[in-house]
Amino acid sequence: MIIFGSDHGGYATKEFLKKCLDKRKIPFIDCGCDGSSVDYPDIAEKVCREVLKKPDNKGVLLCGTGIGISISANKVKGIRAALCSDYYSAKLTRLHNDSNVLCLGGRTIGEEVAWELLEVWLNTAYSGDSRHTARIEKIAAIEARENAVGTCSECKE
Ligand code: RB5
């Protein structure tokens, strides 16, 4: 399932992308916002928690620049959120990073570009290459070490 979320800065582009998926009869869930002012970390967390419920789920997050919402999304363990504004990056982040969340800037790219990026991102599978898998595992290892900080007796003063 594709799960959308945006703050007010990404709302218009989110609505455009939803129409693109509707036309193609591709199902999705929208976790908000409804156009009113919201805080992007709240939306990022909501969408990411949904994404993590099933391995094939994918999230699409938008804010004004895409930056705040991507920083927030990447704080959630297991999320690999990629902020993209060009076709090559949108394709490569699926092939190499197996990104499970695409972040877009509603005020930095046009709607048609946003759709082009979403389309290639959705249609590109992870390469499964062992070199890339090893790197993704290292990302997970950073997360694990980060979670352990402060809980290890050696780290305590
Ligand atoms: C909200 O005005 C704006 O700060 C937000 O949409 C985003 O651009 C933050 O990174």
Describe the secondary-structure layout:
Layout: E1 2-6, H1 11-23, E2 28-30, H2 40-51, E3 58-63, H3 67-73, E4 81-83, H4 87-95, E5 101-105, H5 111-123, H6 130-148
Parallel strand pairs: 1-2, 1-3, 3-5, 4-5
Helix pairs in contact: 1-5, 2-3, 4-5
The structure holds D-ribose.
D-ribose binds next to helix 3.
Description:
The chain has helices at residues 11-23, 40-51, 67-73, 87-95, 111-123, 130-148; strands at residues 2-6, 28-30, 58-63, 81-83, 101-105. It is globular and about 50 Å long. It has 6 helices and 5 strands; from the N terminus they run βαβαβαβαβαα. Strand 4 (81-83), helix 4 (87-95) and strand 5 (101-105) form a beta-alpha-beta unit. It has 157 residues and is of the alpha/beta class. D-ribose (RB5) binds at residues 7, 9, 40, 63-65, 67-68.
Short account of what is shown:
This protein is of the alpha/beta class.
